[in-house]
Amino acid sequence: MPERNKLTIVQLNDVHGYLEPHPELVWGHSGPLFPILGGFARIAGALRRIRVETGGNLLTLDNGDMFHGTYPAVVSKGYGIVPAANALGIDAMTAHWEFAWGPDHFEKLAAKLNYPVLALNCYRTNDGTRPFLPSAIFNRGGVTVGVIGMAATIIDKSMPPSFSVGRRFDIDEVALSMEIQRLRNEEVCQVIVVLSHLGLPQDAKLAEAVDGIDVILSGHTHNRLRTAILVRETIIIQSGCHGSFLGRLDLVIGERGILSFDHMLIPIDDRFQADEAMQQIVDDIMRPHRSELGRQVGVTLIPLHRNLQLYSPMDDLLLHAIAMAAGTDVAFSNGWRYGAPIPAGPVTVNDLWNIIPTNPSVSVTDLLGADIRQMMEENLERTFSPDPYRQMGGYLKRFRGLTMFGKLENPAGHRIEHIFFKGRELEDDEEIAVSFVTAQGVPEKYGHARRDLSIRAIEALEACLAAGGAASPDDVGRFYVS
Ligand SMILES: [Zn+2]
Question: InterPro entries from the entry (predicted)?
Fold first, then answer.
C-alpha cells in the first residue's frame, strides 16, 4: 500500500422519503428562514460530482429513516422510494422507521435494495440470531473499511409495538467491541466506521466507551454538525435531515489509521444540477400523486415547523385539529422531529402528509391528573436523561390546553413543578378527557375508556384549516423551564 491513501465518506441521514426539493428551516438572525433544499435529483448530482472528484474512492452510507415520512413513501409502505434509493449508489444503510410496517415487511423491502442493511444490534427474540448482517467490508483505493450498523434501539421501547414483533434492539458495547476486533484482526480493516441510528448523545457516549472506532456516522437526532465532534480518537458527524444536507468526510489514511481529515456539511441547494436520470425516476414515482398532493387546503399565517425542543408551531396546529375533531380541551401528540417546515402561505395536501405521514386515527381517553404528570415525567426523562442511553424521546411530548413549569436538570420523576388546566392547578385525582394520536402520543398503559374515532389525523387537519386553521394562543400547551 502507498504511504498515504485517500478515502471520502459521504453521509445521508434521516432523509424520511423526501424525494423532491422542499422548504427547510435554517435559523437566521431574526428567526427562521426557509430556503428550498434537498431533492434526490440534486443529491444524485452532488454525489456524481464527488465521485468524479475522488476518483471513485467514495463510500456513500445512509443512516436510515429513508423509507418513511412522506406520502409516496407511506402509501407504498416504503416500496415507492426503492427505485430512487437504489439509483443513488448507496453502499450500506442501517434503520429505524423502516420497521414501521413490521420487521417481516422491512426484510422483504431490504431484499429489493442493491445495498445491504447492517444492524449488529437487531436480534430475533426466539433464537437470538440476527436478521441482518452486522457489518460489511469495502475496498476503496487500496483502503479496507469495515462498516458496522447500529439500528435505532428505541424501536422496541418507545415506538408502537407492531414495529418490533419478534425483534429486540440493544446497545451492547461488548458485542460492538468484538465485531471491531474481528474486522481489524481477521479482515485486516484499516478504518472502522459505525453507521449509527442511535442519536448524537448516544454516539458520543459510545465513542467514549468503545475503543477502536475511527468514524461514527450519527443519525436520528437530525443534528446539522458544521464541525465534526472528536471524542478521544473517534470522529463523529451528523448531517441534518430530509435530504437537505450531505455530510462529507475526506480522510487521509496511513499505515496506522487516519492521519488527518476534512469535514464539510453540504447544503443541497441549487448549486447542484439535477441529475436527469434521477429526475426521471422521481417524476415517475410522483406523477400519480401530484395533482392530489398539490391541492390547497388552507392557509397558514405563521410558519409551521418542528425545529424547537419544548413546543412546535406545527404541532400546535395538529393538536388544535385533533382537539377540534374530538371536542376535548386537552390533546397530546409526540415530539416528532421529522416533517419539512411549511412557510406562511398556502398549505397543500402534501404538507399535511409531511406533518403526520402515519395518518393515524384521532383517539380519545380519560386521564387522571396523576396520569398526565407521570406520563410527562416519563417523557421528560426519555428526552433529557443525563444518561444518553436512557434518552429515547424525540423532542418534548407536544400537548395542548395545559401549561407546565419545571426544571429539566432535576432528577428523573421530579422535574415538573406545576401543571395548570383552565387557569388553575390540575389536581391528581381530577379526570379529564383528552384526544391524542398514536401510542407515542399517549402510551397504552395510561388512561381508560380509550377508543379510536372514525376521523383520521389528516382529515382533522383539513377540516381545521377549512375552518380557519390557527390555534388560539390561549389554547396552545407550553412547558416553561422554571
Ligand atoms: Zn430515527
Answer: 5'-Nucleotdase_C, 5'-Nucleotdase_C_sf, 5_nucleotidase/apyrase, Calcineurin-like_PHP, Metallo-depent_PP-like
**pLDDT tops 90 at residue 74:** yes
Residues around ion ligand 1, judged by CB within 5 A, are 65, 96, 220
Band of pLDDT at residue 479, cut at 50, 70 and 90: very high
Q: How far is the centre of ligand 1, averaged over its atoms, from the C-alpha of 154 (Å)?
A: 9
Ligand 1 centre from 421 Cα, in Å?
32
Q: How far is the CA of 246 from the centre of ligand 1 (A)?
A: 17
pLDDT tier for residue 250 given thresholds of 50, 70 and 90: very high
Place of cell 375533531: 325
pLDDT value at residue 255: 80
CA of residue 48 to ligand 1 center, whole Å: 27
Residue 192 contacts residue 178 (beta carbons within 8 Å)? no
74, amino acid identity: V
Query: From residue 268, how far is each of 39, 63, 225, 265 by CA, in Å?
Result: 8, 17, 15, 10
In the chain the domains, ranked by start, together with CATH numbers, are: 5-286 (3.60.21.10), 294-481 (3.90.780.10)
Residue 186: how many other CB atoms lie within 10 Å:
8
pLDDT in tens, 397-428: 999 999 999 999 999 999 999 999 999 999 99
